[in-house]
Amino acid sequence: MPAARLRWGFLSTAHITKALLDPLRASKRNQLLAVASRSQEKADEYARKNKVKRAYGSYERLLADPDIDVIYNPLPNHLHAEWTIKAIQAGKHVLCEKPLALTLDEVDAISDAAARYGKVVAEAFMYRTHPQTLKVQEIVAGGKLGKIKMVRGSYTYVATNPDNARWIPEMGGGALWDIGCYPLSYTRTVLGVEPLEVFASQVTGPTNVDDSFIAQLHFPEDVYAQLDCSFKIPYHTFMEIVGEEATLIIPRPFTPGMKEKLFLTKAAKTEVIAVKGTELYSGEVEDMADAIQLGKPSRVSLADSRANAATILALFGSAKTGKLVTP
Asked: Is pTM beyond 0.70 here?
C-alpha cells in the first residue's frame, strides 16, 4: 500500500461535511487538506473554525489544486452529477453524497467518466460500510431467517425549513430522493436482487415535491417490500426482514452507532444480538482508501447506484400514473 495519505477536499461548506471531519482526522490513510465555497469569506471561516489548511473561494479553484486526491461532493442533489464529473476530469476520486444523480443518463455519464479517467467514484450511503449492516447481511445470507418473504422499512422526520433545497423540485427535492432512498437501498442490499415491478403513492405539498411517499416492491421468488418515507411524520426509522422461520428487526438501520442491538424472533422467542459498531462515517472514508489504494471494489458500486436510481424513477412513475412500473 502506498505510504502517502489521501488528501481530501470538501466541495462545499454544507453542514453534512462536519460528519467527515473526525473520521478523516482519525484515519491513518486519509487527511482533510482543503475546503471550497462559493465565497472566499465562507471558505475562510470554515477553514478557521475546523482547522483546515487551505480555503478556496470557488469550486473550480479546489479542483485545480494538484495536491488534492479525493473530492467529497455534498452539493444539492441537482449538482451532484455536474461537479462529480468535473472533479473526475480534474483527476480526482469522488465520494458523492446520495443520490449520486437524478437521471440514469447522469449516472451513466459519471460511470463513463470514471472509467475513462481511471477514478474511483462512490455514493455516500454511510450505513453500507457499518458493522451492523454487514452483520444483517451475514444473518440473512446464512439462512437464519429461512426464505425471505417480506421486507418493511421506514424513514421519516419533520422538515421545518421552508427555504431548504428539499422543497424545490428542480433541485431534486422531495422525501424519496432525500430519505426514501435509504430503506430502498437497504432492501436491495439485503435481498441482493432488483425488483421486478413497483407500485407507489405520494402526497405532494405546495411546491409539488413529495412530502410523503409509500412504496410496494415485488422482487423475484415472490418477495415483497413495503417502504415509506415522509417529511411530515416525527422521526422514525426501522427495517424489518421477515423470513419463513424468523424475523429480524433493525431499530436504527440508517444511522447506527458504536453499540447497536438487533432483534431476531423465532417461535415467539426473541434473541438480542449485540453489534459492536464504529463511528458512522469512518467506514465510507476507509472504503474509499481501500478502493483507491488497494484496488478493492467499493461497497457501493456505480452499478448499484444506477439500480437504486432506476428504482426511484420507476417509483415516481408509478406514483404519477397509478400503475405498476418495471424499473
From this structure: yes
